[in-house]
Design brief:
The chain is mainly alpha-helical. It has four helices and no strands.
Amino acid sequence: QSMSQENFLAISITSLSCMVVSFFGTITCVLGYYVELENFDEVTQMAKVWAVAFVMFAAVTCGPSFIIRSVPTTLFGQGGCLSTYLTVSTCVAIALTLALRMRPTKNQASRSV
């Protein structure tokens, strides 16, 4: 995604949102792969935190285009702030899926996240 034509506000908000969602997703992936099965509730809780952060920061990413009408931002398409955010979030979700899939030991809880 190229956001070179966007203004500073849209780029900074999108970057912050992507970093937060990536951070929570990375922590969830690492916990999901390495935590023992007895403590898998921690992974489930982090997955819920990641899901809430995803929804909350999706709204934050869309905020400048709805609040400030003079800011010419595009949500979707090439260089769109929301499309960039969704691309990063999709990569995090795929990484979580692969981390849980590659676990050496699995149970019902690890398969249901």
